[in-house]
Amino acid sequence: MYVYTSHIALLSDLLLKKSSDSPEPEDILWEQINPDLDALRAIIANHFGSPCQSQEPLQPGAYARTFLHILQDGLHVVGRVILPARRTLKTEAEIAAMDSIRGTCALLGRSPLLTLGSPARTSIPVPRVHLYCSTPDNPVRAEWVLMDYVPGQRLDDCWGEMGVPQKTRTAKDLARAMAEMFALTASHCGVLLHDCSLNDSQRSLRYEPSVVDAPVEAHVVVHNGDFLIGPVNDITFLALTEIVPASLSGPFTTERAFLEAFGYRNEYGRNKVPSTLGRYWRWPIERMFEIYDVIRSLYAPQVDSSAPFHFAHADLSTANLIVNPESGEITGLVDWEMAGFRPAWLCATSGTWFDDDSCRFVVEDHQNGPDGYGEDTDTDAVLRQVFLAELEAHNPTLLEHNRKGVELRAMFYNLCNEYTTNTQGWIRKYEKYEWEVTERGQFPFDMRKWEEDLLDLYEK
Hints:
Layout: H1 5-16, H2 25-33, H3 37-48, E1 52-57, E2 64-71, E3 76-82, H4 89-102, E4 129-133, E5 143-148, E6 153-154, H5 155-158, H6 164-182, E7 185-186, E8 191-195, E9 222-224, E10 227-230, H7 255-263, H8 275-303, E11 309-312, E12 321-323, E13 330-333, E14 340-343, H9 344-347, H10 378-394, H11 396-404, H12 406-415, H13 420-433, H14 437-440, H15 447-459
Antiparallel strand pairs: 1-2, 2-3, 3-5, 4-5, 6-12, 7-11, 8-10, 9-10, 11-14, 12-13
């Protein structure tokens, strides 16, 4: 029996000795796991009935190493070997998300984009999963997924060489994909673990030794109509040096509970610290929620909907968008491990160049003050408008969340900070540059008094 928790414990011990020139945490863990790639090739050959002639590494992700396998009959198969961050749950969620987006998902029928055919089906290009194993108890000694190879290039590898017509096509494809996912809603915030609306032929096949449903902790799963929803998978919760327990990661019934889980995620490991130090760590987070309560009340009447949470890929970086550089068509969205139901304002940004929030001072510090988009050319500005116009054409509410949710996203990003001193610095600049007293009244608290009190606490 393979026991992954021993590797996590060993990783923690090794990190205490880590020097500046030591391997990265994931490299240490890969060395300890030592997955058997020969066993993976044998599984591929047996499943597809053709010998594997080559196994070439592709661009690695944060939690997986990916290989292109070319079989003797010419078939191209991608194999992802997965690190044990949140065993079983993360892989099961990734597969469920891909199956639902590829399949005929019942709740997608709510989208006006999907009323032409019945049953509802998205146009999002998701690789087909042929076989997967969500437990390390198999010959590979790790979780793994076998899926179709997606032709094309990563967007970050070819963006600079693409022309305006091609970039325009990419912008429109991405906006439509976001709108189609946004149509999928739930009452809880978390990952989609099982979609009951899919038939057996639409679900990916499990590897034989794990045919019985993989174990999932009952206390972290809720029923939501056609779905089983589990805890949020997010890179902040799954940092390899300190994985937040699934029991503290949802599913959440309110937006505030979701944000509090990020802001106070380290509390469970600080039970023995002096109370003054704990207060110093916690105070900037508490202040952030005072600001949140004001901003949320201003935001709510304008764009809130009856559905509290919407589905999103949650990692639409240029590394996860595969495109045909000659046409600009998006040929594949990959790496669905963080996908799930999130607050609407968090689903309304792509994380790519088109509407990158880091161009806004409220999200990303631009030296001493706000400077808008700064480096944009006229062409850049036009492409951004094409993307936003396409969002509006498919779902006007989605565009509203994109525009008006930027401050809430900024708060979320700051709650994800490892150090609360960063949050303190953000609050200071936010009050100085972004808070309009004439429109919103006085800041939620006396900034100068709080910084004095915080300094006094620090000296103690």
